[in-house]
Amino acid sequence: MLSTILWVIFYLACPALVLWLCSKNKFLDSLGAIVVCYVIGLIIGNIGILPENITGVQETLNMLVIPLALPLIFFSMNLRGWGRKQAGMTAKAFSGALVAVVVASFIAFMIFKPHLGEEGWKMSGMLIGCYSGGTPNMAAIGTALEITSSNFISVNTADIFVGAVLFLLILSVFPRILRKILIPFKKESEGSNVEGIQKMDTFELYFKGFKKKDFLPLLGAFGISVVIFGIGGGASFLVPEGISSVVAILLITTLGVLSSFIPKIRNIKMTFQLGHYLLLVFALVVSSMANIKELMGAAPVIMLYIAVLFVIAFVIHTLLSKLMKVDADTHLVAMTALIYSPPFVPVVAAILKNKQVIMTGMLVGIVGWVIGNYAGIGFAYLMQTIFGG
Fold first, then answer.
1. For the chain, how many structural domains are there in total?
2. Is residue 351 part of a domain?
3. Is the pTM of this model over 0.85?
4. Is 105 among the domain residues?
């Protein structure tokens, strides 16, 4: 019991320490608090110091922190500034990403089909669903297609490993590369012709200038986030289990967005910073759950299949964004939302230091959630029809 309590304290305290260190050290700040937490998590998860009964604590924290973080992040956003320009950019970002995923999935499946076995067509559907809506779609499609448990675990494990490598690239290398290839993001300012928009040119991740008078309002905002989480969690029990998490996140997102239209809530200071801190807790916990040896040994052919799919999709998506004049920041959050699901969008927005792209990324991800299952199942049966299975 004492050990469990101590690890809970560690998971909650370590991200706060990382934030403080990043605010004081330029090198750590350049790496990003998210990257630092991922590295720490991978280390503690693979050196044998975690107790055997820690899984329950990890799963509980994962279940709590993202639903609590999302409303807090949305509270600070003034959606009046998300106008026609952003809507058009969202449509282009989503369509480019979806086309890239479909084409890449087709090419990768043609290459690897002889090595994937009889259920390769089912795997292709799972992956296209995953990369147009995240892990919930992968699980739903695997269930719908009745893929064997062993193949489901192989695909999921390989996806976790390759996806983790890609996510680290998104958090570190890709922003620099894509900002040289694609057009820059044009931030709205107070001088914009869009009425009521907040100036977001400065993106502060740390609790600087926090005053005692700000504590009670921030505590109130956290309380509202808890209520929203409760509503979303309650609603998830009213729908089939396969879509419960999707329904919960969609409802939590909707209520968080609607709350941002209330000036008293939107003007509470430090809500975004508190939400960002919870995202760091999530990053630390998730990375500490990864077993590097198991990930390295799981289905190398499937890992290569997924890696090739990623590379092809990345190249096609970048070319399409270049042709459609999608800016680098929107391109990255769209890719993140579709591959990793909307909750990861604020993480990448924090790395980009651009809060204005959060809503675009969330909308892309939500649309991906909606159509991902249809796209994945349809693609799987198309591959079965064309190539047999």
1. 1
2. yes
3. no
4. yes
